[in-house]
Design brief:
Elements (H helix, E strand, L loop, with lengths): L2 H26 L7 H17 L23 E3 L9 E2 L2 H15 L5 E8 L2 E8 L2 E7 L5 E3 L2 H4 L16 E9 L2 H13 L8 H9 L4 H6 L3 E10 L7 H10 L9 E4 H15 L7 E8 L2 H7 L9 E5 L4 E13 L5 E12 L2 E7 L3 H7 L6 E5 L7 E5 L24 E4 L2 E4 L6 H11 L12 H9 L6 H4 L4 H5 L6 H14 L1 E3 H7 L7 H11 L2 H5 L3 H5 L6 H11 L4 H11 L3 E3 L12 E5 L7 H10 L3 E3 L8 E4 L5 H9 L3 E2 L1 H8 L2
Parallel strand pairs: 2-11, 19-20, 21-22, 21-23, 23-24
Antiparallel strand pairs: 1-6, 3-9, 3-10, 4-5, 4-7, 7-8, 10-11, 12-13, 12-15, 13-14, 15-16, 17-18
Bound molecules: 2-(butylsulfanyl)adenosine.
Cofactor: Mg(2+); Mn(2+)
Family: Belongs to the NAD-dependent DNA ligase family. LigA subfamily.
Catalytic activity: NAD(+) + (deoxyribonucleotide)n-3'-hydroxyl + 5'-phospho-(deoxyribonucleotide)m = (deoxyribonucleotide)n+m + AMP + beta-nicotinamide D-nucleotide
Amino acid sequence: MDAATAAAQVRINELMTEIDRHDYLYYVLDAPVIGDTEYDKLFRELKDLEKKHPELASPHSPTQKVGGHVVSALNPITHAIRMLSLDNAFNDDEFSRFNAVIVDECAVDDVEYTAEPKYDGLASSIIYVDGILTLGGTRGDGQTGDDITHNVRTIKNLPLRLTGDYPKLLEVRGEIFMPREVFNKINEDQAAVGGKLYANPRNAASGAARQLDSKVAAKRSLAFCAYSLARAEGKQFKTQMEAMLALQSWGIPITKGLKIVKGLQGAKQYWSEVLASRDSLPYEIDGVVFKVNKISQQEEMGFNSTTPRFAIAWKFPAQEESTSLIDVDSQVGRTGAITPVGRLKPVKVGGVTVSNATLHNWLIVESLNLHVGDTVLVRRAGDVIPQIMTADEKARDPAAAKIVRPACCPSCGSPVVMEESTLRCSADFECPAQRQEKIINSVSRKLMNIDGLGESSVAALCDLGILKDLSDVYRLTVDDILKVPGTGAVSSQKLINAIEASKATTLPRLIWSLGIREVGESTSKLLAAKFSTLDALMNATREELLEIEGVGDKTADFVIKALQPGAAIREMALAMIELGVTPEVIQAKGDALAGRTYVITGTLPTMNRDAAVAALEALGAKVSGSVSKKTTAVIAGSDAGGKLAKAGLLGVPVMDEEALKALVGM
Ligand code: IVH
């Protein structure tokens, strides 16, 4: 080896160790010490060196996680220790009964349990020999599974090499799962081409983990968390917790939120807390797993045929249920998109009764080959609208009527056009449904913010022919409003006052409320920041619009078309100004908080949420709706729920209103 090659070898080793360390800090301890840019730099340096000296590239290098290994079929593997399953508890009583048996048999009052979220993915067993990831397998029937080592090696948060005082042979068990974001993206991509949807992240994870080409698996960004230690040669532990912390010290990510709880009370409280945080987690969980912490007591309890007697999964309400499809209706949105909506036999999903569910688009309806009366799988997860994921073709009545896409707009009868995967009404302001939906959207809280002008009032006023577009709202009189069924003099006057109050608005809100295609909240802010006045925006050229980072060809075209002389939206905007709508002149943005992201949750004692958001954004901060590792801090008021709990789980700092005021200098 010449001197240059030797130097490269030294540097490659250094970089591998350094990157492994940062991966550990980031993925396992949730405590990164460097930013993305610095990390990327190290990573690129290593990749470049490996490219220059392929003979020095290690198979355990962190650069190897992009996959590349292809197998012709999955080989079977035999588990040295059988992979068990868990008994379930579906309510308080069932959990209490489980606890009572342990109290009785172990003769202790307050049983000490480890408590942790139950990840919704697939069980996997992973073996490290001499600290090197050697084998990864699925559970299969518990005795024999599939060898998925090539795909397990692409899992970003799972080390290819262990660190610390690891045993010579380690077999760890845990869940391979797919983050929500990846799952949603895969299904969005599928929906865009009318392809088959994955019913849930579990199925998607399972599909990805069984890919023959590990490059495909790598793209699916699978993640892993350990929940048990099967074998650790030469190591002995007194408690489950000790074993888990040992795994963590060797570099293995363990379940987030793992904690010791005491007795029935402690367990119930933990279960409720985790349930409250469920929707804000970046992955899906379907319950909490409790395990007796002391290994001696675990041994006392022993096993049933396929499950331990010392552990239980206390499940959350299911997020998927089957029900029958009554029919599929068409809903015309404010931009003319005609979306299929499934009318369902009411069914409880995740604790809420669902009778309508979206079907994404008509391509999906056609690819599911839906028929009236079909048995469909409905899913309601997080804040996502209930969706119909699959239909049971086998259970279909052969005489059932096939559901077909509408040939014309169900509201105005205009011809429909297919734009990518969206079926659209070819009319615009002439379509009553579009008109009504545009107004409902424009007067909502985040836009013109007209309190008391709800969906049903807008619908009634549209039906009466009083409202045709947003500007008509500013022409409403008490007499007009009194024509809405169920409205009295007091509420009419209140609504007039609210309309009056809404005239003092901001330019981004006004722009957003015009309902220009592709111009939502963030684009409105960009346009307002660039042009400062509505007048200037109306006179903007296509080139000027394209100078804005974040405004592309499509958006620019829609803006130009909407605001050109004679266009309906331009006329409406001018009429609104004429009727007294006055956007305040916006202040230039500071950048003291640039690059930071905050999440506001709960009710702040004195500030309203909009004011808090405005104060942060004015200093260049981003305000997000969900907590992640990248969140700078969570600002919590009273009644803060899941987001606060999640901050706790992820170790994100929490601030109160006082601290916020100090931060923004109020
Ligand atoms: S313990 C000996 N802990 O749930 C029992 N399982 O329904 C081993 N799972 O097959 C399982 N998160 O795939 C355990 N924190 C957790 C879990 C968990 C998810 C899965 C696992 C298991 C299934 C049983």
